[in-house]
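debug: dumping io for the single-chain case to check the tokenizer round-trip. Nothing else runs in this session.
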Amino acid sequence: MAEPKKQSSPRKTGTRRSHLVLKLARRVNASSPVKVRTTKRENSKTLTK
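debug: decoded output
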């Protein structure tokens, strides 16, 4: 019998909970002197200030 096809690209598990990671990162940025990368758009704002 024929074998089933293998999945060509692995499922992206890292991107699924990105909204939770973002929420955490924003909380850290609010209180910590060490800033965490959130989004491209948000980071460009903080860099230009």
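debug: round-trip ok. The first helix runs from residue 18 to 31.
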